[in-house]
Design goal:
Helices cover 30% and strands 22% of the residues. The relative contact order is 0.14. The N terminus is likely disordered. Bound molecules: flavin-adenine dinucleotide. Flavin-adenine dinucleotide binds next to helix 3, strand 4, helix 4, strand 7 and helix 13. Its cofactor is FAD.
């Protein structure tokens, strides 16, 4: 991908000298961008954003100032957009509960220590350096909680990670252009107990949790006094969902078991097992030949494939629709994604499936100056286009397209709020699928280059595909720094095995 290659030129992360807390500091009220409720009242200047005394934030931009693009979310779509925005035209403000982008295709590898966590996390300041240095550009560690499209304001609440000595606070950010790139949430289909007992695999902290739990179970099962049943339960790793993420994670686990557990946990090596539960066929979006290959490869590596539908999840066992009880020590849930509660709460027209409805230019047509990209958005039925799959390649291409669209709007003088009426938008967004890849463990992978489920194209499986998979992702990792980390992690794992310390 051209943009991945161009990202290697990113300059070093500059010091994030701007204090994020400054927005509530009265000493900053003199800055044109920052208004506190108190400050606005004191200066007598009208504050277009209504605030209670404890509310503050970034007020609207003035006509002589750069227009402001507010980006909600720091995933594939939001980061690609920020990378492409021309910061001589716009100020960029990103609101997200995490200050980095996750390189999700390699996340499963971090759960068992094939890769380290930091190798797949790219700080936003390295993706768009203006965010840490330009006077009107900021990153705010916060969740967006509400949207007021009439006033062009987003309401936010800081993220404090449950720290008891920090109170959360709310603030508002005015936008000229708003890009919603909030991603999606793991689907649980309303099955009881999933949220409480299963671990999802979407964020780096999920991978940390999985690795710690896996190592804890391994160590406890080797301790004196444990019953045979409990030992088997603790060492039973169950993965629900046979899509690419579930399959890749199962493959990584089986590699970990076959190489590292056998060497390091010799006493319990015969007790540890992986079960992959899928309601239909695994990897249903892949070519049928590749699906068969994946099934036989996983089975050879010791992964038990079970066709079933989960009815209930309890703390130590799951219950399938046919009444079968499956005790587990580690449960990873990976059954696809759906719209987040925030997206569901937005009062805008939705696409089939409940995502934010967009037109061919990625605009949310019912509201001015609002765009939506990535997993949270889908074409409206009226466009006649299908909702695109929840994939990084869709999200990053939409981010790239929208950056270029916004740059041309800004250069044509339409950057400020409510100014795009007479601007020519150019060609619509067109998506061409480049193919899919997935690893299945044991140095084997699948590469499906068909342009769609029914389309024609090359499909490969085996070691060569694994080599293509690794090379492709190594070149797509965002920065040189992380590319270096990934290469070194792979080499270290190959030579010395995975790191099994539970930190
Ligand atoms: C383990 C895994 C492996 C994957 N592998 C592949 C692959 O190999 N190939 C592929 O094409 N796709 C893959 N995907 C899918 C791909 O990662 C997603 O399609 C992609 O991340 C979507 O990008 P996005 O920007 O829309 O959402 P995300 O990347 O999910 O980003 C959403 C952002 O919004 C933020 N956010 C959420 N709520 C709020 C809020 N209220 N306020 C502010 N910010 C908020 C989040 O913190 C996050 O920063 C994988 C996904 C996973 C989980």
């Amino acid at each position: 991908m051209a943009w991945f290659r161009s990202l290697i030129h990113l300059s070093n992360l500059k010091s994030a000298a701007k204090s994020r807390n400054s927005i509530i500091s009265p000493s900053f009220t003199a800055l044109s961008h920052f208004n506190t409720g108190a400050g606005a009242a004191a200066t007598g200047s009208p504050s277009p954003v209504p605030r209670s005394s404890e509310w503050s934030g970034l007020g609207p931009t003035k006509p002589e100032e750069k227009p402001r693009v507010v980006v909600l979310g720091s995933g594939w779509a939001g980061c690609r957009l920020m990378k492409g925005l021309d910061t001589s035209v716009y100020d960029v403000v990103c609101v997200s509960p995490r200050n980095h982008m996750v390189f999700t295709p390699l996340l499963a590898s971090t759960c068992v220590g094939t890769l380290e966590f930091r190798s797949v996390a790219e700080p936003i300041g390295r993706i768009q350096p203006a965010i840490s240095s330009a006077p009107g550009s900021y990153f705010f560690l916060a969740n967006c909680t509400a949207l007021d499209p009439v006033k062009h304001v987003v309401h936010c609440e800081t993220v404090t990670d449950g720290e008891s000595n920090i109170d959360q606070w709310k603030f508002e950010v005015s936008y000229d252009k708003l890009v919603i790139a909030l991603g999606a949430e793991a689907s649980t289909f309303g099955i009881h107990g999933v949220g409480e007992n299963a671990i999802f695999l979407r964020e780096v902290h999920h991978a940390v949790e999985i690795r710690r739990k896996l190592l804890l179970n391994l160590m406890l099962s080797d301790s004196p006094g444990i019953s045979e049943y409990e030992k088997r339960r603790l060492l039973h790793c169950v993965v629900v969902g046979g899509g690419p993420t579930g399959v890749e994670f199962s493959g990584e686990l089986s590699d970990f078991i076959m190489r590292d557990v056998r060497q390091t946990y010799g006493h319990v090596k015969d007790y540890i097992h992986v079960t992959l539960i899928e309601a239909n066929e695994i990897l249903s979006s892949f070519d049928v030949r590749l699906r068969r290959y994946a099934t036989s490869q996983l089975t050879k590596s010791g992964v038990r494939l079970v066709r079933g539908v989960v009815r209930d999840v309890e703390s130590q066992k799951i219950i399938l629709n046919d009444g079968t009880e499956v005790p587990y020590g580690l449960l990873v849930w990976s059954t696809g994604v759906g719209p987040s509660s925030f997206v569901r709460s937005l009062e805008v027209p939705k696409s089939p499936g409940g995502r934010i409805g967009i037109d061919e230019w990625l605009r949310v047509p019912s509201v001015q100056d609002v765009f939506a990209i990535g997993d949270c958005s889908g074409f409206l039925e009226s466009t006649g286009k299908p909702v695109l799959p929840a994939l990084a390649q869709v999200a990053e291409r939409q981010g790239k397209y929208l950056a270029s669209l916004l740059n041309s709007i800004g250069k044509a003088g339409g950057g400020h709020a409510n100014c795009t009426k007479d601007i020519e938008f150019g060609g619509p967004f067109v998506y061409k699928h480049l193919g899919s890849m997935a690893t299945v463990g044991s140095y084997k992978a699948l590469v499906d280059l068909r342009q769609g489920k029914e389309g024609k194209g090359l499909s490969l499986a085996g070691f060569i595909s694994w080599f293509i998979w690794r090379s492709a992702y190594l070149t797509r990792v965002i920065s040189w720094r992380n590319r270096f980390y990934v290469a070194i992690n792979w080499l270290t794992t190959f030579v010395f095995g995975r790191d099994i310390s539970r930190i």
